[in-house]
Amino acid sequence: MKHLLALLLLLTLSFQGYSQKKGKKKPISKAKTTAVQEIAMAAPIIEEKRIPDTLQIKKGKKYVFLVDVNEYSSQGNTVYAGNEDNSEKAELNRNFPKENLEIITISKYTYVLFENKQTLDITGDGQSFQAFAYWSGKLDDKVQVKEGTKMATEFVAEQLKSKKESSYVINTRKYKKEVASLQGKNKITAKSKEVMKALLSDHSLPIPDIKLDDEAIFKQGTAKLKTLDSYFLKKKGVRIPLKSVSFNDQGLPTAVTYYKDEGKSNSKKEFVYKDGMLTKITREDQTVVCSVNYDDNKVIFSGNVGDANETTVYWLENGKLLQKSYTLMADDKFSYMNTFTEEKFENNCISYYINNVVWSNNCGGTENKFPFIHTYTSYQDKEVLQYRKSKIEKKDDRTFEKYYSQAERADQNDDYKLWGTIYLDDFNLVDTYSFTKDNEAKTIKVDYTCYE
Q1: Alpha-carbon distance 299 to 89, whole Å?
Q2: How far apart are CA 87 and CA 94, in angstroms?
């Protein structure tokens, strides 16, 4: 028996699995690649809560297995053709188009039986497995296994003696070079100030997270503001604060405070200027949120977000403020988590891309021209995920009404329902915004003070 166990250990190629069930750690599990005969002789009969799949692999093809199994996902089926959403599968197809790889995604407890008398044992109730496996399809070659769910291209390239790399590894070098070219710039021009003011006007809006379909109303005013305070106006005059903004005598914000949880202070940002130009944004404790530099018609924000560094570039195009952002992990071994986002002005719409894939389109009419029609479309896997159409009608110089269409697709007829009413004050600033959300009537009131 000792000899047999030693033989099993020598034949076993494994990757570690990690599991967690009901908050308690379980012993580390391993997916075993062994000779089938020894498995049959040595493996004890264990009653599984779930019956594993058995997958027979024949010689003659090159196989790649993308293994991601846990006690919950294993209730589904083994995906033999692979999932198109799997980015690693897409990476492999892009990088090895001539290899005719048979890519198999495994998401259920499975015994993989190879014609060369080896097995890949991905079983164990409650256990989790994340790994890659490769077999050349030749009877004399062993199955190769590596733990992990990222950098499948590098794993396969090693087996094929190739120098291929994952796109996110290549892009990391590209993005770092682009970011390095942006940092340290300090070319301040009249265009720099124009972009800065457009950017800061977004921070100065009275309601957090104002969407593009509302901006046409909230940017009407021309008063020289000193302070701005918005709040939910409840029954009996109770005020629940939303946002407060302080401005300097040049009309630039110096501090913005956001509130949540029934008016409790959430966060405060302070804006620091030198010679009328924004140089950094800090928190209340003076820690720096981001530093600011300029390159003619570009404003560049740089800051740290946890274990990553973020650089965002803003510019004006066709009168619209656009941006692109690089979020790069400090440790290159996590390069697959790096993100590049970008806005583009396309067909009179602002398209938003994440890692070069379009995620949404915002299409609006001409500002200050009513009715103002706006459509928002988001995408997932190149299919429409959400479609939303709104319009703002001008009832008189101080009153506007906002409607949402009931259409869920662009090819459906519009059936507009009144959502809210916006009232302006004598300075064309939003005074109140009354609307119904979740069957509850709400009113947002905004108070201002101005410099004389």
Answers
A1: 37
A2: 10
pLDDT > 50? residue 152: yes
Containing 88, the helix (H) or strand (E) segment is: helix 87-95
Q: What are the backbone angles phi and psi of residue 59, rounded to the nearest 5°?
A: -70, 170
What confidence category does residue 49 fall into, taking pLDDT thresholds of 50, 70 and 90? low
Please count the CA atoms within 13 angstroms of the CA of 452 that sit on its side-chain side. 0
CA 413 to chain CA centroid, Å, is 32
Q: What is the bridge-based pairing of β-strands 320-329 and 339-346?
A: antiparallel
- Secondary structure of 151-189 in HEC code, one letter for each residue: CHHHHHHHHHCCCCCCHHHHHHHHHHHHHHHHCCCEECC
Structure tokens at 118: 């080896």
Nearest CA among 191, 188, 199 for reference residue 321 = 199
State in Å, rounded, how far the first CA of the chain is from the last one.
Answer: 94
What integer pLDDT is reported at residue 221 of this predicted model?
A: 67
Rounded CA separation 82/91 (Å): 12
Determine the Cα–Cα distance for residues 387 and 408; give it in Å rounded to an integer: 6
Q: Which residues contact 37 (CB under 8 A, 6 or more apart)?
A: 117
3-state SS assignment for residue 58: coil
Strand ranges in 63-139 using DSSP code E only, listed in sequence order: 63-69, 102-106, 110-114, 118-122, 129-135
- Read off the pLDDT of residues 296-310 as tens digits, 9 standing for 90 and up: 999 999 999 989 999
Q: Could you give the C-alpha distances from 9 to 3, 13, 14, in angstroms and in order?
A: 10, 8, 10
Name the amino acid, one letter, at 20: Q
Q: Give the tens place of pLDDT for each residue, 309-365.
A: 999 999 999 989 999 999 999 999 899 999 999 999 999 899 999 999 999 999 998
pLDDT of residue 285: 82
- Give me the DSSP letters along 276-320: TEEEEEEETT--EEEEEEEETTEEEEEEEETTEEEEEEEEEETTE
What are the beta bridge partners of residue 239? 233
Report the mean per-residue pLDDT for the chain.
Answer: 85
pLDDT in tens, 353-402: 999 999 999 999 887 789 999 999 999 988 999 999 999 999 999 999 99
Tokens standing for 268? 């405060």
Instruction: Report the distance separating Cα 171 and Cα 412, nearest Å.
Output: 40
Q: Which residues pair with 259 in a beta bridge?
A: 265
Residues 251-286 have pLDDT tens digits of: 999 999 999 877 777 789 999 999 999 999 998 888
Question: Residue type for 182, please?
Answer: L
- Euclidean distance between CA atoms 383 and 377, whole angstroms: 10
